[in-house]
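In the laboratory, one determines a bound structure by crystallizing the protein with its ligand and collecting diffraction data. In a computational setting the workflow is compressed into a single prediction: the sequence and the ligand go in, and a structural description comes out. We illustrate the idea with adenosine monophosphate.
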Amino acid sequence: MNILIIGAGGREYSIGLALTKDENVEKLYFSPGNGATDELGENLSISDFNALADFVEANNVDLTIVGPEAPLVDGIVDVFTARGLTIFGPTAEAAQLEGSKIFMKNFLARHSVPTAKYIETDSLEAAYTFINTLEAPIVVKADGLCGGKGVIIAQSHDEAKKAAGEMLSGNSFGDAGTSIVVEEFLDGYELSVFAICDGKDYVVLPAAQDHKRLLNNDEGPNTGGMGAYAPTPLVNDDIYRKLNERVIEPTLKGMEAEGMPFTGVLFIGVMVVKGEPIILEYNVRFGDPECEEIMPLLKSPASELFYKAATGDLKNARIEFHDKYAVGVVMASKDYPYKSSPAAEIIVDDIYHEELKENAHISYAGVSRGEDGKLYATGGRVLVCVGIGDSIAEAQKRAYMLVGQVHYAGKQCRTDIAYQAL
Ligand code: AMP
Ligand code: GLY
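The predicted complex, in structure-token form:
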């Protein structure tokens, strides 16, 4: 099978890495890929969807896997499907589950999926009235895609009103904030749950926990994610069952009934409040860095999971996972997440230690290959050091051993990834 992966991050690298271990896979392409995916396959630089579809036809690509949300929201799946090509991901219409928080919240309400009490509005007056009915902290969200930055957790009523005013006036997030969601604050612990869906059937992957804050002990600003681990012991059978019955099944049935069956990754941002899973948000793609920990846990061929989901055949898939844990530590650049940092050469020590060779690896993200053939850190989140083990503690130790082998100017990482599970 020849496979094209759309995207450039550590998430796409980790999907590629899983596919290189799969004997059904012959050739991998990435578009655009990054400075390290060229070691797993061939990087392309085609951004137009029809031109990508031309490439797929001309090169006998059997399956395209879309990593990030932007091409999904922009309709890449619609273009490929209209041309009879097999692609893993939701249509533009279904991708509104992530593309519009208002669409998502209203969908959850229509199908009685548990979520925080909210209003959606473009009126400042209505926002103020609702804010007055809530207790602080209060959550204010811009409607559209804002690269994960469109959420303000206001510590007071005044701060919430100010955030709503700034979003609605277009000052904070431009057009993405011309409508907003105001919602109650949920106090609990957060999980990332991923269901691979084929429109009707689904497979739930080992649940992960992300670490969104920059600094240890979950302090500092929000980031794209500084590390994650899976499976998390914070999910038990009871929570999985509630997620299946109250969340995933009504969502798949609802999407089908509304004429937009959901195919792809349903990423469920869950807050567990007093043992009850409540939905914070949906995304329509893998989490990054969660994907980097989940992919290595997959025991059955990765191509089978994605291909069967893309062709509506998941019920005939036998998807298995290793009985192991994975911990991933994001190594970021010096000024992440505030501003970009100068390019820095990456040096990874030769690894002689058998334990590490077999149980740890790097998923490369914000890296570029220089004209000198060397790898440079050029993005905010540069790479993820992933350790695998029979326990979370063992996986964490290996991930941090690998961190010690990686060098570049200005490297920063958290030193406590997975602490909530230890
Ligand atoms: P979102 O983009 O909606 O996932 O929000 C980003 C982050 O803000 C989430 O991962 C949560 O940590 C936090 N968050 C969002 N909504 C709420 C809420 N209603 N209560 C508590 N935390 C929230
Ligand atoms: N790690 C969270 C996300 O990808 O949105």
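The mean pLDDT is 95. Keep in mind that any predicted model is a hypothesis to be tested, not a measurement.
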